[in-house]
Amino acid sequence: MPTELAxxxxxxxxxxxxxxxxxxxxxxxxxxATNSIYSSVEDGFDNIEETRLLYERAYDQEPDAExxxxxxxxxLRAIDAVASELQVLEIELVYLDLHQYQRNSTTSxxxxxxxxxxxxLEEAFGIDITVLPVIWDGFAIDPLxxxxxxxxxxxxxxxxxxxxxQSDPEFYAPIVAHELAxxxxxxxxxxxxxxxNAVREVQRRTRQEIDDEAHFxxxxxxxxxxxxxxxxGVLTFGPAYLSSLARHLHHSNPYYIEKDADRDLHPPPALRxxxxxxxxxxxxxxxxxxxxxxxxxxxxxxxxxxxSRPRIYETYDYGDLRTFITQExxxxxxxxxEVLVDDISAGVAPEDCPERAHRLAANQYWLDTYSP
Length: 372
Hints:
two-stranded parallel ribbon
């Protein structure tokens, strides 16, 4: 009977599950969705055993029957399903272990700040997710439970990865909004479809202008996620986002467009800056004087490197697609930019507005015209 190797794999997975159970028992920090994954893995082992028994019974009766072969494949799929969910659980435990260690170290205040800021942003975005901050090597967000049935169709657990730095939290807080916006986009399938249709329409109209239309389309489809997140950064942090992003985008070639299809395609920093400027001018022109020096500094940086701008940059910096983002993203996502701007203009103190406290503090940090 061809189940010997499969049974060995199941035993290995059971050993990993027992080890995961031991780690869970030692953790102070818990994530509610973990219970769903854990229970699903337990149920998965039960399903493996049930399908194995059904297969063995069928094999004993008709080993070469098509139904017997199908039961064997079902047995293997049950093993694969448990392996997949167990891998998610193991990765989550790695991050939980790191999070707990860092919560008991000198980085605890930064994690507390990130957790509190994430809660404020979740409320502004109107999403309900679990955010687990850890200190690592830069800014990123990692959806842990993507595409597994245990927690539903959408990811619910996100690891927020932060850089190891001694900078003031207000310095980088606006970038956290960009990272959490990836979770917002996970819930915007209709908007993504509309944008991809807009890209196809641009392709249809501009084939004479673009040398490599496949690369143009692929670039913009990939860029959309980052530009969407930049738009959400503006809509939640206001002018502070531009000031913080200007530092984050500093690059030796801000006009660079990646040509290698196997590498990560991020929008050129110059394009991201221009998009954020467009949104900023639309939503809070009266506050732009407060970050005038930051805007001018980045524009001078771009001017000094204009000689490195490739010929295709002007073609790829396509107005219709930028306009789609500046018009459609604000209409599609929950945000409170108008109220935030009113608070800044009125000089509201962060401690007097707990639902926007972190974002007001970041604007006090960056704006010359909004002092503590």
